[in-house]
């Protein structure tokens, strides 16, 4: 029997990618919320030692005694271990990995920083940085829009995969980054939000009811509120 423990935090879209996959997969696992707002050396054990041995970040996953970090690497490992959402055949597996690598350098770079700059720590970003990030995001989400215009249900056509979980992770916080999403992307997010087991990021990642972010915008983007 596979033993899984996930360490995450309600403000981490990277944690959300992984936990959402586990929830939709309906596998048994343990979730432990870590306070990432305290100094890394003050975080609870065993997370502190395990995380500092790698990059000191959430998410961190333990799987049958082995430890994994970086959300997209974790998604790949879980897909392989569980035999779920990894793509059909060799071509599907490779396509999933292509999208995860693309996400890490595109939407996974621009959108989290835009969210931090516009909703949390505007003084931490130098002049011109926010404009550059916004430009990058528009180009990145435009690429995703182009892919979805053919009417496919998910990134791998009708097959739900780790590519969907990875790409969607931070897009449910697009309102906090003050960016608009194309209709195709909103519709695709709506299909993900209709999955059995889906929860919005804060509901998914918080172990205490009524969690409230310290950011300026408190709610999340709900694609189901957008008229088709």
Automatic annotation (TrEMBL):
Gene3D superfamilies for the chain: 1.20.1050.10, Glutaredoxin
Domain GST N-terminal: from-to ranges: 2-86
Highest taxon of source: Bacteria
InterPro entries per the UniProt record, alphabetical: Glutathione-S-Trfase_C_sf, Glutathione_S-Trfase_N, Thioredoxin-like_sf
A family per Pfam: GST_C_2
Coiled-coil annotated residue ranges, if any: none
Record's protein name: GST N-terminal domain-containing protein
Organism: Pseudomonas brassicacearum
């Amino acid at each position: 029997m596979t033993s899984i423990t996930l360490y995450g935090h309600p403000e981490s879209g990277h944690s959300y990618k992984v936990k959402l996959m586990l929830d939709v997969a309906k596998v048994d696992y343990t979730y432990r919320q870590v306070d990432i707002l305290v100094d890394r050396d003050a975080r609870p054990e065993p997370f502190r030692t395990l995380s500092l041995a790698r990059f000191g970040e959430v998410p961190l996953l333990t799987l049958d005694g082995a430890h994994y970090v970086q959300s997209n690497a974790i998604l790949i490992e879980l897909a392989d271990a569980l035999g779920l959402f990894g793509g059909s055949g060799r071509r599907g597996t490779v396509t999933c990995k292509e999208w995860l690598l693309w996400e890490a350098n595109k939407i996974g770079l621009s959108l989290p920083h835009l969210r931090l700059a516009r909703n949390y720590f505007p003084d931490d970003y130098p002049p011109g940085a926010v404009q550059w990030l916004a430009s990058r995001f528009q180009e990145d989400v435009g690429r995703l829009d182009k892919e979805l215009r053919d009417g496919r249900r998910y990134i791998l056509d009708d097959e739900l995969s780790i590519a969907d979980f990875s790409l969607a992770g931070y897009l449910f916080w697009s309102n906090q980054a003050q960016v608009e999403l194309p209709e195709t992307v909103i519709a695709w997010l709506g299909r993900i939000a209709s999955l059995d087991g889906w929860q919005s990021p804060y509901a998914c990642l918080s172990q205490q009811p009524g969690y409230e972010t310290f950011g300026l915008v408190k709610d999340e983007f709900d694609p189901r509120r957008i008229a088709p």
